[in-house]
């Protein structure tokens, strides 16, 4: 009975918090913006990274006009579509993620920033779900 209660009522270690994600995303704006299809800036930021509007479910390496690393483009061509699980691993270490995804020790990502805390990465994802969906 105790085992059933523990399994049945177990809560996740961390429920994603989009408000905290918004605060965390401020570091991302050094490179990324969120600009909708009308050209309106939902979040102003840099242009070193791709526009994150529509990132939820988007094929990796597919924003028109953005120059991705060959590895990121290949990952998208192989079917990588951004979801929470992959995003959380990717933002911890972009190059390590791409090497694992592509099974290629030479794969490289361009993103140098690392968000090592998985809970904070989930918060950023929750924020992007709120603001970056078309």
Describe the protein's architecture and organization:
This protein has about 130 residues and is mainly alpha-helical. Helix content is about 40%, strand content about 5%. It has helices at about 1-10, 20-25, 70-75, 85-90, 95-100, 120-130, and strands at about 35, 40-45. Helix 4 (about 85-90) packs across helix 6 (about 120-130). It is globular, with a radius of gyration of 16 Å. About 25% of the residues are buried.
Topology:
Elements: H1 2-8, H2 18-25, E1 34-35, E2 41-43, H3 70-77, H4 84-92, H5 94-102, H6 118-131
> Which outline best applies?
globular
Q: In DSSP terms, counting alpha (H) and pi (I) runs of 4 or more, how many helices? A: 6
Number of strands: 2
Strands of the widest sheet, in order across it, are 1-2
Average pLDDT works out at: 91
User: Which structural class is indicated by helix and strand composition?
Assistant: mainly alpha
C-alpha Rg, in Å?
16 Å
What is the straight-line distance between the termini? 46 Å
User: What is the H/E string?
Assistant: HHEEHHHH
Characteristics of this structure?
single chain, 134 residues, mainly alpha, two-stranded antiparallel sheet, 6 helices, disordered N terminus
């Amino acid at each position: 009975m105790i085992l059933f209660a523990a399994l049945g009522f177990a809560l996740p270690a961390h429920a994603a918090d989009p408000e905290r994600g918004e605060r965390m995303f401020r570091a991302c704006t050094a490179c990324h913006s969120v600009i909708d299809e009308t050209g309106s800036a939902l979040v102003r930021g840099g242009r070193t990274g791709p526009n994150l509007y529509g990132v939820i479910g988007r094929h990796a390496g597919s924003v028109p006009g953005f120059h991705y690393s060959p590895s990121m483009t290949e990952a998208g061509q192989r079917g990588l579509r951004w979801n929470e699980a992959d995003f959380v691993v990717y933002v911890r270490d972009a190059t390590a993620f791409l090497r694992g995804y592509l099974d290629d020790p030479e794969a490289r990502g361009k993103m140098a920033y690392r968000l090592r805390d998985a809970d904070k990465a989930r918060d950023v994802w929750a924020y992007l779900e709120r603001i970056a969906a078309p």
